[in-house]
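Box 3.1 A note on notation
Throughout this textbook, protein chains are presented in two layers. The first layer is the amino acid sequence; the second is a token string describing backbone geometry. Keep the layers aligned when reading.
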Amino acid sequence: MNYRAFFQDVTAWMDQINEVVQRHSIFTDEYWDHVVKSAGELCNKYGNHELVKQQMSMLIGYLDQQYRKAKGGDDETNAQKRV
């Protein structure tokens, strides 16, 4: 696998997600549909290599954390503070 190309694609993907959130709020189905579809396309591009799947899973997890923070919901940090 060409790791340099992959991480360049990850950077481009993140830029694209930032553009999409400008058009569609993080609270919309359009935003999340794009996140999931484009992440899947990137995984497919690299033959579902384990590193690619884990990297994209981590990034989607990060976006989910941002969503939870924005809506004022429970994220791991807030859950740990309440314990």
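The chain has four helices and no strands. Helices lie at 3-23, 29-45, 50-71, 76-82.
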